[in-house]
Specification:
466 residues; alpha/beta; Pectate Lyase C-like; 3 domains; 20-stranded mixed β-sheet; 11 helices; 42% helix
Length: 466
């Protein structure tokens, strides 16, 4: 304030002492008043009054005195450059972006017309109609929230546009104008009214639930209404001499089962939907079997197909006595994996929406098993290392490894599922679970296990040598 008044006094030097003192006292009082009663800072007050030079020019003009013409100062040069930049911004950006935002808001509001027409349509109430109604109503609610977001973005842009223009051209009463613009935001409205904000939150959740429920029911009905035909596929190769074969299976659907069979025929049989792209490829030169199953369906069709299909899609691998399985990899969606009485050099399994069940197996190198939304069960399996992970499923391990041959490692991790371990003789066991219990018991309690077990929201019970 003091600097401003001193500068103003200097520019008013051409006035007599009495007039100059009266004007300085007036603006000194104005500074005090606006600071105390309006809560403004000195900078905000000066922005409303103008620079000392501009104010002095107005005062001198009122007193009939022509203000002196001053040379262009560096500050004025900077202001001129800012004015030019703002004008260019107004012409090349704001001139098209602001109408575009208003047009977007208008078209988004007009989209409610067809939505309300659908909601008030003359359809006879049914499950299909209710699902459609929920889908449209939930979409309308979320669409309204999107409109509020675009509206607030438009107000923010107008606020920014006015601010830079008022600053560049030294327009007074800037803060009052900008405050009024900010008050137009829907966000400010809800911030000042907690009850309205709570109502908005409830409506948002309800709209999301209606939308998801409508999508779910509509997709289920679509899957059920579409008859699914299945086709059988078969491919085989004769293996007369003992050889090691690698197997690679990637399937969008199908329960994968490994069988032991007599004879020398290495056979793959599948029972899959007719719209599935199926490739069963035996490479005798490379000693390799590749199975590929692809489904060209939407996300929701794939999601609900597994739960509501009346038939099970299956892929059966018949392994003869002359075939030793080497590196075996299985990736399957919406399908289980079952193996019994078969040995592997290494076994890598990934499943989604399917359990993994392995019994009586010897894995020479490594066992790596992961599943989402499925459980893992191993019985009478021996491997140097066990890597087991599941999300939303339990892990059950029984009779793994021989206590007379130490040196094995076990890592088992589960989310939302318990871990049950019985007669598992390994040197080191790392067990982790969220929202589940851990139970580890061995008949031979003299066998020492380096156990690291942790659970969230569950209990740990052990009966082993440590």
């Amino acid at each position: 304030m003091n600097t401003f008044l001193k500068e103003l006094e200097r520019h008013l030097s051409r006035l007599d002492d009495a007039d100059r003192k009266e004007i300085l006292d007036h603006y000194e009082e104005r500074f005090r008043h606006e600071r105390i009663f309006e809560g403004k800072t000195d900078e905000e007050i000066i922005q409303g009054i103008g620079s000392p030079e501009e104010l002095a020019a107005r005062v001198l003009k009122k007193h009939g005195i022509t203000p002196p013409v001053s040379r262009e100062s560096p500050e004025r040069e900077v202001r001129t450059g800012r004015m030019v930049g703002v004008v260019l911004f107004d012409i090349f950006i704001a001139a098209w972006l602001l109408p575009l935002l208003f047009a977007l808001l208008y078209n988004m509001l007009m989209a409610y017309g067809p939505l309300f027409h659908i909601l008030t349509g003359p359809e006879v109430p049914s499950w299909s109609f209710l699902a459609h109604f929920a889908l449209v109503l939930g979409g309308a609610v979320l669409w309204g929230l999107l409109i509020l977001f675009v509206y607030d973005a438009t107000i923010s842009f107008i606020h920014h546009l006015l601010r830079i223009n008022m600053e560049a051209f030294s327009i007074g009463h800037k803060e009052d104008t900008l405050r009024r613009i900010r008050s137009l935001k829907a966000k400010n409205y809800f911030q000042k009214r907690p009850s309205a904000a709570r109502t908005k939150g409830i409506v948002t959740v309800a709209g999301l639930i209606l939308l998801l429920a409508g999508l779910a029911v509509t997709s289920v009905q679509e899957v059920r209404a579409t008859p699914i035909a299945y086709l059988d596929h078969e491919e085989s190769v004769t293996v007369t001499e003992i050889a090691t074969w690698d197997v690679d299976i990637v399937a969008d659907t199908g329960d994968v089962t490994f069988h032991v069979t007599a004879g020398d025929e290495f056979l793959v049989e599948s029972h899959l939907p007719e719209d599935a792209s199926v490739s069963l490829d035996f490479s005798a030169d490379e000693k390799r079997l590749e199975v590929r199953v692809e489904l060209d369906r939407s996300f929701w069709q794939n999601f609900f197909f597994f739960g509501f299909s009346r038939e099970r899609a299956t892929i059966d691998i018949y392994v003869p006595e002359t075939v030793l399985l080497g590196d075996v990899g299985v990736e399957v969606v919406n399908g289980r994996l079952v193996s019994s009485n078969i040995d592997y050099e290494s076994l890598h399994i990934r499943t989604t929406n399917g359990d993994i069940n392995i019994r009586h197996a010897l894995i020479a190198e490594n066992l790596d098993v992961q599943t989402t939304n499925g459980s893992i069960a191993l019985r009478h399996v021996d491997s140097p290392d066990f890597e087991l992970r599941t999300t939303n499923g339990a892990i059950e391990l029984q009779d793994l490894h021989d206590p007379t041959d130490p040196g094995r490692n076990l890592t088992a991790r589960s989310t939302n599922g318990g871990i049950e371990v019985e007669n598992v003789y390994v040197e080191k066991a790392t067990l982790r679970t969220t929202n589940g219990n851990i139970n580890y018991f061995n008949d031979d309690t003299t066998f020492e296990v380096d156990l690291d077990a942790r659970t969230t929201n569950g209990t740990i019970r052990t009966g082993i040598g440590e």
